[in-house]
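This follows on from our talk about sequence and fold. I would like you to pick a protein and set down its sequence and fold. Go ahead and set the record down below:
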Amino acid sequence: MKKPVIAIIVVIVILAVGGGLLIANHNSSTKTTTASNNTMKMNSPSSTNSASATNSVTIQNFAFSPASITVKKGTLVTWTNKDTATHTVTESDSQTGPSSGDLTPGKTYSFTYSTVGTFKYHCSIHPDMTGTVTVTE
């Protein structure tokens, strides 16, 4: 009777060790995938502040960020007010440009640039806040 008990104990130990290895391998794979995804996000053009890589502008700390961007003709540019105050996005040079009206905190405004050129804008409530969109072919 001792041989079957020993055999059962050996099987249990093998299953426990094998199960532990499977769990450890799964956790290692998950960590590798997460690290790879984080690396891809950090290197993604949309997460950089490069003027030529974005069509989004954040309004925060009484400033447009980035203050200048370059986009292709036909691009939709979106401003997001992440500030605590109300702001506007208003064209500055009598060209066809953005005219958001009041953007309360958390609101967004989008404008499509369909003409090549350089377009200046400002906040009509806080005139020292300015920005530029350069549109290329």
